[in-house]
Known about the structure:
Blueprint: H1 7-21, E1 25-29, H2 32-43, E2 47-53, E3 60-65, E4 67-68, E5 71-72, E6 77-79, E7 88-89, E8 103-108, E9 111-114, H3 115-121, E10 125-131
Antiparallel strand pairs: 1-3, 2-3, 4-5, 6-10, 7-10, 8-9, 8-10
Amino acid sequence: MAALSDPISDFLIRFKNAARAGKDDFTAPFSKVKAEIARILKEEGYIWSYEVNTEGDFPSIKVKVRYIDGTPALTDLKKESKPGRRHYIGVEEIPKVLGGLGITIVSTSQGLMAGHRAKKKNVGGELIASVW
């Protein structure tokens, strides 16, 4: 297995590729951050479910992609913050994605959360991704 320089981006691209290819689910190496991103995507309705398999040498996370009438709930996503160039924002700078139809994922001092939840809690942080 090759070493990844950006495992969060790898997870998001696996999700995007699975949705576009019409796959029911996909598997990725497990990390706590990826599990939190999967939790947010489930809360916001982009995936059906996820399960963590910690058995064996390499734990993994299996995500079930959500489709609505054969069309994936995910249209596209964009990784905002990259390892070489982090993108930090204040609470007033949290963007709306497609006029509120999409979500942003923000890493705050209170944990990972969707952008609209971060606004309600009045916290900013690192803008991880935009999903629509």
